[in-house]
Amino acid sequence: MKRLDFAGVGVRVVGGTDGVGGGDGPVVVLMHGFGARGDDLVPLWRAVDAPRGTRWVFPEAPLVLQAVPVEGRAWWPIDIEEMMAASDRGGFDAYARRLPPGLDHARERIVACLNEVRSKLGVAKLVLGGFSQGAILACDVALRTDQALAGLAVLSGTLVGVDSGSPSLVDRTSLPVFQSHGASDELLPFVQAEKLRDALMTRGMNVSWAPFGGGHAISDGVLRGLGQWLRGVFEDRSS
C-alpha cells in the first residue's frame, strides 16, 4: 500500500500491477463512511473481483472525531441522533433536503483530489463510489459536478441537500450506477434508497440495483455484485 497526498487529501493507493497502484489500469476511488478510520475500506480491494490491473484509491476524510474511542473520521459533521430520530418519525425526506454544513467544502476537496488522481495516475477510466457518508458524497459529486466518470457506486447511501428530481442536477444519461442497500438499514431508510434508485433511472442512468437483507453494511453479496459490475464497466470498450 502506498500513502500519497492528492490536493491536500490523504489517500491510500493499492492494486494495479504491483499492489501499490502501478500500471495504467482503471481506477476505483472509494470513500469511507462517517466515524470510520481512513483505512476502513482498504481490504475491499482484495475482496472484489475487479479486472486485473484495477487500481484502488481510498481517500481519508479530513475531520477527526474526538468523541469516538478509536480514531474516526468524517467528511462533514453529522448529528447521528438527529438523523436517526428523523428516520424513526418518518421525517427523513425533510431532513435529507437540507444541505448539511460542510458538504460543499467536502465536495470541493474531493473534486480537487480526483483531478490530481487523474493527472498523477494517468487515468483512462475512473469509477467514484463510497459507503454511507462516502456514498452520499460520491453521489453528490456525480450529480453536482462535471467530473468525467465511468461509473458511480453507491453503497448504502442516499442523496442529500436537494430534491432527487431537481432539474439543477447534472445530466448523467447512461451513466452506469451500482447501488446497494440493506432492507433493514437502521441509519439510512431503505425507502430513501428506493427513491434515489427511481430518480436515477428516471434521469436515464443505468442502475444495477442490489438490495440485501441486512442492515447498514456491505454484504458478501454486495461485494460479488460490485465485482461483476466493475468488470462490465471497465471491460466495455464503448465507454
3D structure, described in words:
The model has no long low-confidence stretch (mean pLDDT 91). The chain is 33% helix and 24% strand. The longest helix is centred in the middle third of the chain and has 19 residues, at 103-121. The two termini are 29 Å apart. It is globular and about 50 Å long. The protein contains seven helices and eleven strands. The protein has one domain: Rossmann fold (3-Layer(aba) Sandwich). It is of the alpha/beta class and 239 residues long. A hairpin with a 2-residue loop joins strand 1 (2-6) and strand 2. The strands form two sheets. Strands 1, 2, 3, 4, 5, 8, 9, 10 and 11 form a nine-stranded mixed sheet that branches. It has a two-stranded antiparallel ribbon with strand order 6-7.
What's the arrangement of secondary structure elements?
Blueprint: E1 2-6, E2 9-16, E3 20-22, E4 27-31, H1 44-47, E5 55-59, E6 63-65, E7 72-74, H2 80-88, H3 92-97, H4 103-121, E8 126-131, H5 133-144, E9 151-155, E10 176-182, H6 190-202, E11 206-212, H7 220-235
What labels would you give this structure?
33% helix; 7 helices; 9-stranded mixed beta sheet; globular; alpha/beta; 239 residues; two-stranded antiparallel sheet; Rossmann fold
